[in-house]
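Section 4.2 – Deliverable D4.2 (structural model, holo form)

The reporting period included a commitment to supply a predicted holo structure for the target in complex with 6LC. Inputs used:
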Amino acid sequence: MQTEKEDEDDASPEEFFGLSDFTGSDSDQLSFSTGDRLLVHARTSSEWWWAELQGVFGYVPASFLHQGAEEDDASLEDPWQDEEYFGSYGTLRLHLEMLSDRSRTEAYRQVILNNSSSLRDKVLMDLGCGTGIISLFCARLAQPSVVYAVEASSMADYTRQLVKQNGCEAVVTVLQGRAEELDLPDKVDVLVSEWMGNCLLFEFMVESVLLARDRWLREGGVMWPSSAALTLVPCQAHSYYAEKMAFWERPYGLDFTPLQPLAQQEFFTKPKFSHIIQPDDCLSAPCDVISLDMYTLQVKDLEEIKGQFQFHMEKSGSFHGFTAWFTVHFESLETGGATVELNTGPNSEPTHWKQTLFMLDRPVSVRAGDSISGTILLSRNPVWRRHMTVTLQWSVNSSTEGTDNCQVETKSFPMWR
Ligand code: 6LC
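Output (structure tokens):
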């Protein structure tokens, strides 16, 4: 054992290369460019390593580095993981989940129905049409001249059959392929898509939508959804905490607390998808932290999206973490028509997205009147383009104790790499 430890300490630094440019945000961090050769002296944590670049030392984000100048795993594998991604949409499981989600599917149906007269003779694109439900709603509930139903997965074969089976083949044209490689005879008047992932952006299908907008939406055309927002709330999560963390305190009358650091690492490092937050577990009113305008949003804006929050506790309780969800809006094309909203939050019908829970390492007691302020940062993974890291930074300001106790905490949650 002793010799192994010594070997580790004496280990010479490992050579890594910059995968993309990184600009350090403080003097402890080392800035570098794509292709720079760095020497990693210590893998301090799973995310931050202590490294050297031309004699200068600092922390670097592990996800921005790769070993071996050319043959890195991302270049062997596709950074979009399209084979796996479109492979999974080639089976029924996800389509069943999406179609069974009534709030989601009904929201799109309502949009078409509310705008049916404005859609008359229009050219539409349904990007990522899956089984073609939105395109079929368009053909059945309105009279567009054509609907281009674009689908990259092998489901497109079946979608074509479904279009025929439902007598919509004169209007709906199914195009199998990636929207990025599409060729159309004309631009479209309306670009409709259901692109939202967990925590709004996960999967980054939104990039395909933005590229299609820039290439295929005519001047003055319509985007559905037209805008999107990410909402956050500080919350309690007693039962999840009890199930994954408090459990180790006294199972079968024994003390298993030495496993708690492991539990924290295993259960609280990544966010919990598919959380259902009870309105009662919200400690304050929620706050929109990020708003996206689907007309002006640019692909490059997706690399880093920042938001701010300030919450005022409405009740006392245990602050276990933050819960996030999103809302999208569909503008009306009819004069005086109402906007349609698809809200995936705790006060709306549950959807297949449910909510996303970000657990703190340890709960903090808060009292009514306290406030929690801070920032959220969504950083897209520089390599794995469908993934991102959510970094939360916050401080709790007590209403009863002095103002000198507001320590700033920070935690980064990879989703998934
Ligand atoms: C819905 C995703 C659907 O859109 C799924 O059927 C997938 O194969 C398709 N899709 C995704 N990206 C593209 C693209 N670039 N070109 C063509 N089809 C695409 C995702 N919905 C939720 N996550 N809810």
